[in-house]
Write a structure and sequence with these properties.
With 451 residues, this protein is an all-alpha fold. A two-stranded antiparallel ribbon has the order 1-2. Helix 1 runs antiparallel to helix 6 and helix 3 runs antiparallel to helix 6. The longest helix has 38 residues.
Length: 451
């Protein structure tokens, strides 16, 4: 198979994956969830989060009793509920602006600024930590809506599996490199730093990385005039955007295969995202691993993910992205089952699980993005990707809600992790029913040679 090089604009587009992956890995996946959990436990129990005693107290949140160990999952759930209202408006606006790259970069820089403020979450101030996580997740998700929509402008249908997979691979590499630096910082703790200060500096580094490397796509991506935008009434951009959103929601039933994919993706990606969010907490609180061990394990996921994304891209070129995603979901089911039986404080099985997650993680997500791009009517790219992004990484809500509730009811993370299997089963069953070629034709797009 001849290797096709990406053009300069496509390479610039790759680098937003490189930029934002620092937020997802260092903050979203590894450090912030257990750190915020420790801050919440300190507020609820009156001792530091790495104390050996087990916290059984609860926080009072708007008059409700919330387990400190479940707080971060409820916070992510709240962010996603809010995003259900915010992201479609962002998408509708993005379809009408003259410069998608400027909108994407502005959202990214705003998110990075909010993430930088996480450095100031200390003591028992879980309220500040929770609020910053909600806002940063919203800015992150909004920027990805625009970023994903740009894929359709820079790549032809037959290129998108390859381009999307390369972007994901570069993202895993970039996020992994920064995480490696943070691993050294948290492990060595130079200059007499405490573990807490090392974690806070690592959070700040991720925000700076996100902001700085966003300059590359901002400078390298070309502006294109909106095309095929649905005419709607309204004098302002906001009025026209709301009008387009309401029209799209009404017309979505005319694209049943697109709607079926969105529902399937909602389920299986919620499972994926909850595994990502819960991995560090599960390893810390349930399996008893130190922070440095968790970071090293996530590093394995990151660097294996580079290979996994590229392998899945090549496999999709042979058998189609639809079938490749289904195979990936089968592996995810095995991952969840294996995770349930992991013995505490046994590093080798934990590392085996990390390798399995790395192989399948980037591939399923990269191909899902490329596959969905084929199912979107022309001129509605950003808006449809806003619906897609509501289910995307970092904004899952059904999975985190189930995980948090099961943990609160059982006081154990094992049944909570096993409960996630239902998301992969339901999502896979719905995806199996989808007629990929029919969906592409319904959307008015040219089908690639292999779907």
């Amino acid at each position: 198979m001849t290797k096709v090089k990406a053009n300069p604009e496509q390479r610039a587009w790759f680098f937003y994956d490189w930029a934002n992956s620092a937020y997802i890995t260092t903050i979203g996946t590894v450090l912030y969830a257990p750190y915020l959990t420790s801050v919440a436990e300190r507020a609820a129990c009156g001792f530091v989060g790495d104390d050996d005693r087990k916290c059984v107290e609860h926080l009072s949140v708007l008059g409700l009793s919330v387990s400190a160990g479940s707080l971060v999952f409820y916070v992510v759930t709240l962010a996603t509920v809010i995003s259900a209202f915010v992201l479609p408006i962002v998408g509708a606006i993005a379809d009408r602006v003259e410069s998608k790259k400027t909108l994407m970069a502005g959202l990214a820089w705003s998110g990075a600024a909010v993430a930088a403020l996480m450095f100031f979450v200390t003591g028992t101030n879980w309220q500040l930590g929770a609020g910053l996580l909600v806002v940063a997740n919203l800015f992150y998700a909004s920027s990805i809506v625009v970023y994903d929509a740009i894929l359709i402008e820079i790549a032809e249908p037959d290129e998108r599996d390859r381009i999307s997979s390369r972007g994901w691979a570069l993202g895993y590499l970039g996020g992994g490199l920064l995480l490696a630096v943070n691993l050294a910082l948290v492990t060595v703790k130079p200059f007499g730093l405490s573990t807490e200060m090392a974690v806070r500096i690592s959070l700040l580094s991720a925000a700076i990385w996100w902001a700085y490397f966003t300059l590359i796509p901002y400078r390298g991506i070309k502006d294109r005039a909106p095309r095929g935008v649905v005419p709607v009434e309204g004098t302002s951009l906001m009025q026209r955007s709301f009008g387009q959103l309401f029209r799209t929601l009404r017309e979505l039933r005319n694209y049943p295969q697109t709607l079926l994919f969105l529902v399937a993706y909602l389920f299986y990606n919620d499972g994926i995202q909850t595994v990502i969010y819960s991995a560090s907490v599960y390893g810390d609180k349930q399996l008893g691993f130190e922070t440095s061990t968790l970071i090293a394990t996530i590093l394995i996921v990151q660097f294996v993910g580079v290979v996994g994304a590229l392998v899945f891209g090549r496999l999709a070129a042979r058998i189609g992205s639809h079938r490749t995603i289904l195979y990936g979901l089968g592996v995810w089911i095995l991952v969840v089952c294996f995770g349930y039986f992991l013995p505490a404080e046994q590093i080798v099985p934990f590392l085996v699980l990390a390798v399995a997650i790395g192989l399948v993680l980037g591939g399923t997500q990269a191909l899902s993005r490329a596959f969905f791009s084929q199912l979107i009517p022309r001129g509605r790219e950003a808006e449809y990707f806003s619906l897609y992004q509501a289910c995307e990484r970092g904004t899952s809500w059904l999975g985190t809600l189930v995980f948090g509730v099961v943990h609160q009811l059982t006081d154990s993370y094992r049944p909570a992790i096993l409960a996630l299997i239902i998301f992969f089963v339901v999502g896979g069953a719905l995806l199996w029913k989808l007629d990929a070629r029919q969906g592409i034709v319904e959307a008015g797009n040219q089908a690639p040679a292999i779907v």
